[in-house]
C-alpha cells in the first residue's frame, strides 16, 4: 500500500476509504475495521485535525430537489488585474448555484460547475450574475445531458 504521509497509517487509509464511499455510523465503521468505537472515533477526529478529512456531509440528490439542469460554464477574462480577478472570484464564491470553480489553463481561465432548476435560471445566472462582471470577456455554456459518473471518492 502506498504511504501517503508519515502522519497516517494503513488503518487511517481504510477509514478514509470507508468514509468517502459510504454514509456510515461510527459504530458500523468500527465494526468494519475491527477497532472499538472510541478508538475509531479518536482516529476520525485525528484525521480531521490533520486535514485529511475535510468534513462529512450528506450528498443530496440534485435532481430530486428540482435542480435538473447541470452546466459547465467556461469563462475567459479580458482583464487579469488583481482587483478584477478578485471581484470575479468573490462573485463566484457567493453564487449558490456554483458547485465548483476551477482556475485552468487554455483558452478559458475558469470552469464553473453550476446546478440550476431550468433554462430560466440559466439565463438569469448568465445575464445577472456573470455578464455584469467587467472582467468577463467570453462565456461558453455546456449543458449536461447525462451524468455518466459523479463521485467525490479519491482512489486510495
Provide an overview of this structure.
The structure is a single chain. By secondary structure, this protein is of the alpha+beta class. The protein has 2 domains: 10-50, Arc Repressor Mutant, subunit A (Orthogonal Bundle), CATH 1.10.10; 69-143, Alpha-Beta Plaits (2-Layer Sandwich), CATH 3.30.70.920. Helix content is 38%, strand content 19%. It has helices at residues 10-21, 26-33, 37-50, 82-94, 119-130, and strands at 69-77, 98-103, 110-116, 136-143. It has a 4-stranded antiparallel sheet. Strand 2 and strand 3 (110-116) form a beta hairpin. The protein is elongated and about 55 Å long. The protein starts with 9 loop residues before the first helix and ends in a 13-residue tail after the last strand. The mean pLDDT is 91.
What would you say about this model in short?
By secondary structure, the chain is α+β, with helices and mostly antiparallel strands.
Key traits:
156 residues, alpha+beta, Arc Repressor Mutant, subunit A, Alpha-Beta Plaits, 2 domains, four-stranded antiparallel β-sheet, elongated
Mean pLDDT: 91
CATH topology of the largest domain: Alpha-Beta Plaits
* Strand order in the sheet with the most strands: 2-3-1-4
> How do the helices and strands follow one another from N- to C-terminus?
HHHEHEEHE
Number of helices: 5
Structural class assignment: alpha+beta
CATH classification, class level of the largest domain: Alpha Beta
Share of residues in helices: 25-40%
State the end-to-end distance.
Answer: 9 Å
- Describe the sheet with the most strands: 4 strands, antiparallel
What is the rounded Rg? 20 Å
Amino acid at each position: 500500500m502506498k504511504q501517503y504521509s508519515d502522519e497516517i497509517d494503513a488503518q487511517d487509509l481504510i477509514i478514509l476509504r470507508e468514509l468517502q464511499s459510504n454514509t456510515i455510523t461510527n459504530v458500523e465503521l468500527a465494526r468494519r475495521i475491527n477497532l472499538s468505537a472510541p478508538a475509531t472515533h479518536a482516529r476520525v477526529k485525528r484525521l480531521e485535525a490533520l486535514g485529511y478529512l475535510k468534513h462529512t456531509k450528506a450528498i443530496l440528490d440534485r435532481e430530486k430537489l428540482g435542480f435538473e439542469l447541470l452546466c459547465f460554464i467556461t469563462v475567459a477574462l479580458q482583464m487579469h488585474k488583481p482587483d478584477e480577478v478578485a471581484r470575479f472570484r468573490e462573485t463566484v464564491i457567493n453564487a449558490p448555484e456554483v458547485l465548483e470553480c476551477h482556475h485552468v489553463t487554455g483558452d478559458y481561465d475558469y470552469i464553473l460547475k453550476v446546478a440550476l432548476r431550468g433554462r430560466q435560471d440559466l439565463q438569469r445566472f448568465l445575464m445577472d450574475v456573470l455578464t455584469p462582471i467587467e472582467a468577463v470577456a467570453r462565456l461558453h455554456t455546456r449543458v449536461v445531458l447525462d451524468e455518466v459518473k459523479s463521485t467525490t471518492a479519491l482512489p486510495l
